[in-house]
Write a structure and sequence with these properties.
Chain lengths: 162, 504
């Protein structure tokens, strides 16, 4: 059996896996009957439907010919790691990491960390340029979000601001 | 008719207060600002700017959001014409002739055609919305849970039928969205479902984290994986904005046709701004060229005016199902539902009676927003062009930052930041697997509503599923849904549909 559409096959696989997982999870709750639906009823139903649809998509991917084989292509690890990493780092800067005793470093530090790490995802990285960008973003965000919109942010590290 | 005038004057009374005018203006400005940026569609724009409206009173917040939505759309067409990049799916066809016009140094008239056409379409769309809202609301009050459930099925089916791509995968995405919508505490039993004992998950998954992760981060990662392509931006060439008399003469019928098509398709479940644009362009191409007119695909002004009018009329009338029935016809409207819920407004037929200022004020502000955008866009076009010359490597860190700040400020909780990271990875996976994410968002918003209506309908019928086909209204809605599926499955239509969504 040859996979004729890689994209379709793996998306079908994903749908089936997620569907089975939801249905299996729903079986742990009270399913009930149609007239008295329990919390597990609707998710169970949908999980089965999703698993079935996934199976159908996989079947089609194995049977229906495609011209190019619908290859998924190379996974962009570098941009993904840096973008997601920048986002996570920002979260750590804002909220701290209590588990290792890291205090919140605040919005300004967060913006610099996020901008630098996110910029690494691009093709070219010039530190000077990135630092200027981060400074503009930090000042702009402070004015817009903290001063103007009055959103609640720790702006400076807690051990300085107290 | 008298009612309509009374209602509209109430609406304009609300919209014309200094405060609301200001918020409509800020919304339009911000929306255009973000919408102009290539690679940021309306869904990501609205999700990103949503936190800016938290502190406002509900009416002002919705007025501002509507402004953001229109602004994002206008911005999208500017990008389409000047950079050959559709800012959003519904400007895909605008690119064809718009960019050609820009290359011939006629970017100004192209932008004017898009702007004026959209403005006209927006005016008509607003009137249709105002006229249809009241009678449709009457119908909605006759709806029981069975009808609502069937209506949602029709809406969801409509949304995938009118969208592009594989039907089967789109349906699967809807179901996945419905399931994700169920995560959290079940309102009836109080059981926390699929929450893995994480306190934040018992409140459910935030729709902003999904929208930003999938539409924001996912897109950025995908964009960065392509080498930065050489973009030709027509900066210096926009001298004369105003179209010639001949342009106007050619534009006018195209705008009228586009508006009509857009208004009709917008009301349909599935809210086809995209389909409207495609249909309008196809129809223009079928009409005969006047002697001496530039052929389509080579910079014909009608090829810009018609699809732009159509998608704007469509986006206006797609508010109809949302405001009267409480059912979002597309991903943007799904975000609107989320925004309304944050401001403690349950969208649906009751909004019009219990909250008339909000309802009519929003409608009036839509017209104002359209007016502001014409005023804002045509003279300020130079500023938007400057924005377009900013290289992507400066833009994307800023977009990531605004997403992160927006997500965090939703609940002032870092949990949402971890969630958006997860959905960013999921969103990129979707792109790699070639599945459209928009139906997911729609399903996500409708999940809890569908479950509740199914539960009530079956409770009333004592578990008898036939209730959905024995009640005439419900049966009619389901039949319509089935008909839609059958129609797209017909081989003749199927190949046409695939053709229609392939660019040229």
């Amino acid at each position: 059996m040859k996979i004729k559409s890689q994209k379709d096959f793996f998306s079908g696989l994903m749908f089936t896996a997620v569907g089975v997982a939801f249905a299996w999870g729903a079986a742990g709750y009270n399913v009930g009957t149609g007239a008295r639906m329990g919390p597990g009823y609707f998710p169970m139903m949908l999980g089965i439907v999703l698993a079935f649809l996934g199976g159908l998509i996989m079947f089609k991917a194995l049977v229906v010919e495609t011209e190019s084989g619908d290859k998924i292509g190379k996974w962009a690890w570098k941009p993904m790691l840096f973008i997601i990493g920048a986002n996570l780092l920002f979260g750590i800067m804002i909220g701290g990491l209590p588990s290792i005793g890291l205090p919140p470093m605040g919005l300004v530090a967060g913006i610099f960390a996020l901008t630098i790490v996110a910029s690494l995802a691009g093709e070219r990285f010039k530190l000077k340029e990135v630092l200027i960008l981060a400074t503009i973003l930090a000042v702009g965000s402070y004015l817009a979000f903290v001063m103007l919109l009055k959103l609640q942010f720790p702006v400076w590290p807690t051990f300085i601001a107290g | 008719m008298m009612d309509l005038i009374n209602n509209l004057s109430l609406g304009f009374g609300v919209a014309f207060t200094a405060q609301n005018l200001m918020y409509a203006f800020i919304g339009c400005l911000l929306g255009t600002l973000i919408g102009v940026l290539p690679g940021v569609g309306p869904v990501a724009t609205i999700a990103m700017l949503l936190p800016a409206t938290y502190a406002l009173p509900p009416v002002a917040a919705l007025i501002m959001l509507a402004g953001i939505y229109y602004g994002a759309q206008y911005g999208g067409s500017t990008t389409a014409i000047l950079v050959n990049l559709p800012g959003e799916s519904s400007s895909v066809v605008t690119v064809i002739d718009g960019y050609q016009m820009a290359r011939q140094g006629r970017a100004g008239p192209a932008l004017a055609a898009a702007g004026l056409g959209s403005f006209f379409a927006g005016c008509v769309g607003t009137l249709i919305l105002a006229a249809f809202a009241a009678p449709l609301t009457e119908v909605a009050f006759k709806f029981g849970p069975a009808e609502y459930f069937s209506l949602m099925v029709l809406g969801l089916i409509g949304a995938v039928v009118l969208a592009s791509g594989s039907l089967l995968k789109a349906v699967a995405m809807i179901v996945l969205g419905l399931l994700l919508g169920l995560v959290g505490t079940d309102v009836n039993s109080g059981v926390a479902r699929f929450s893995f004992d994480i306190p934040e998950l018992t409140d459910g998954i935030g729709f902003i984290t999904i929208a930003m992760g999938v539409f924001g981060y996912g897109e950025i990662i995908a964009n960065l994986s392509h080498p930065e392509d050489k973009r030709e931006v027509f900066t210096g060439k926009v001298k004369n904005i105003y179209p010639t008399g001949r342009d106007l003469k050619l534009m006018l019928p195209a705008v009228l046709r586009g508006t009509t098509i857009g208004s009709i398709l917008g009301i349909l479940p599935g809210g086809g701004a995209l389909l409207a644009a495609f249909a309008a362009y196809t129809i223009e191409k079928k009409t005969k060229l006047k002697p001496g007119e530039v052929p389509f695909g080579k910079g014909n002004i009608r090829g810009v005016a018609a699809p732009e009018s159509a998608n704007n009329a469509g986006s206006q009338t797609s508010f109809i199902p949302l405001l009267t029935l409480g059912i979002p016809p597309n991903a943007v409207m799904a975000l609107m539902v989320g925004a309304m819920t944050i401001h403690n407004i349950q969208p649906g037929p009751q909004v019009m009676t219990s909250n008339p200022e909000l309802f009519w004020g929003l409608i009036a502000s839509m017209w104002l927003g359209n007016l502001m955008l014409v005023v804002l866009n045509l003279p300020l076009i130079g500023m938007w062009i400057k924005l377009l010359t900013i290289p992507y490597r400066w833009l994307f860190p800023a977009i990531v930052l605004f997403c992160a700040i927006g997500v965090y400020s939703t609940n002032n909780n870092t949990w949402d930041i971890w969630m958006v990271a997860a959905f960013g990875v999921i969103g990129y996976t979707f792109i790699k697997l070639g599945v459209e994410p928009a139906p997911l968002l729609l399903g996500f918003i409708l999940g809890p509503m569908m479950e509740e209506n199914l539960r009530r309908a079956l409770l009333l019928s004592r578990g008898d599923w036939s209730v959905f086909v024995t009640r005439p209204l419900s049966a009619g809605l389901l039949a319509a849904a089935a008909l839609l599926v059958i129609i797209v499955m017909l081989p003749a239509i199927k190949s046409k549909r695939e053709e229609a969504f392939v660019e040229e």
